[in-house]
Design brief:
Blueprint (H helix, E strand, L loop, with lengths): L2 H10 L2 H7 L4 H10 L4 H21 L4 H18 L3 H22 L11 H9 L6 H17 L4 H4 L2 H15 L2 H15 L9 H14 L5 H12 L5 H13 L8 H21 L1
């Protein structure tokens, strides 16, 4: 039994203590330890047990916004980082998006039904959000984006991309450096979805990726990987592609809050490097 799993089940033995301390940050602290891990294999093995316990806690605390945010972010990340089976990915991201939408609704009533409101209502509501709303906005963005990614076969899912974009634009207005420049990283991806030959704006995509890298001091390695994968490959820029991947593979991945993500970024960078000759 993996270390993370042992720790989680040890905590279960004191279930009443855990339940009473959930709102004081237990799950958020455990999430932080996962994000700072430098061993993706260990985390892949241990996260399922954590998610089972988290679901049990949510059964008893269904309106706990902090727990819903943790559940949304971890389920969407687990689905896209560790699950290969498409149907399982879709189930996990569906749950993650549901948690994020619930968290938003419980956080502020006007944020209820963001997936069904008219677009004009969405714009009005999102424009009213403030700095204190950033954790909810970010959780919504990450979970909703992952859901769209794995449901890209469904035009109804793709049609919701404009709603997520409004969220990211508001994050840029409130704090463009949030989570190591994540708002710019998301915008870089959005601007790269449509190739220049079909009307996409590659210049905007590049500026957003470069800004994400700059704001993180070059520490957000996934921004560089996405820059290479989503921008350099779209424009067939082999020189930029190879330079970015070389920088990622040579970097120290250990960064508070980014270590696990950076380790995964290096794995993806190696995959892109290995397939470069065939792609270009």
């Amino acid at each position: 039994m993996g270390t993370v799993t042992v720790v989680l089940f040890t905590f279960l033995s004191g279930c009443q203590v855990v339940i009473s301390s959930v709102t004081s940050g237990f799950f958020k602290d455990l999430e932080t330890s996962i994000l700072n891990s430098d061993d993706p294999d260990l985390i892949e093995a241990g996260i399922p047990a954590f998610l089972i316990i988290l679901d049990g806690m949510l059964e008893q605390n269904p309106r706990d916004v902090s727990m819903l945010i943790v559940a949304a972010q971890l389920k969407s990340s687990y689905a896209t980082a560790f699950i290969d089976d498409v149907e399982r990915q879709r189930r996990y991201t569906e749950k993650a998006r549901g948690h994020a939408l619930q968290a938003a609704c419980f956080h502020k009533k006007k944020l209820c039904n963001l997936d069904t409101k008219s677009f004009s209502d969405i714009e009005e509501v999102i424009a009213s959000l403030r700095q204190s709303d950033l954790p909810v906005i970010y959780a919504l963005t990450s979970a909703w984006s992952s859901w769209i990614l794995v449901h890209s076969h469904d035009f109804r899912a793709l049609a919701q991309l404009s709603r997520v974009r409004v969220l990211v634009e508001r994050m840029l207005e409130l704090d463009e450096s949030y989570e190591f420049g994540a708002p710019h990283m998301y915008m870089g991806v959005f601007e790269s979805l449509v190739p220049p030959t079909l009307g996409g704006n590659s210049d905007k995509a590049r500026r957003h990726f470069e800004e994400a890298i700059s704001l993180s001091g070059g520490k957000n390695l996934y921004a560089k990987v996405l820059f290479a994968e989503r921008y350099a490959r779209n424009l067939l820029d082999r020189e930029l592609h190879d330079r970015l991947l070389a920088e990622v593979l040579a970097a120290d991945p250990t960064v508070e809050g980014l270590t696990l993500q950076n380790r995964l970024a290096q794995q993806r960078a190696q995959e892109l490097k290995d397939s470069a000759d065939e792609f270009f």
